[in-house]
Design brief:
The chain is an all-alpha fold and 77 residues long. Helix content is 77%, strand content 0%. The protein is elongated.
Length: 77
């Protein structure tokens, strides 16, 4: 069950075409004829938005693994 949830989150973040521009950026970039600048700005926003989530998820995983590690000293006795 957990693996299906992780795959769903992966698909959501990496394969769904989303627009992350603010309203002002979108209005300025859509008014021009060249849409490659708008796509570049959108990709940059998505990258900057994803990095903090990846860092927090990694830190959370490390903390989870540290506190849920089996205690081997209890199993010896």
């Amino acid at each position: 069950m957990k693996n299906k949830f992780i795959y769903l989150i992966f698909l959501l973040f990496f394969f769904v075409n989303t627009n992350a521009q603010c309203a002002m950026c979108r209005a300025v970039l859509e008014s021009g004829e060249d849409q490659s600048a708008a796509e570049g700005i959108n990709d940059g926003i998505m990258f900057l938005m994803a990095v903090p989530y990846i860092l927090v998820a990694t830190l959370g995983y490390i903390v989870y693994r540290k506190f849920n590690k089996p205690d081997k000293s209890k199993n010896l006795g």
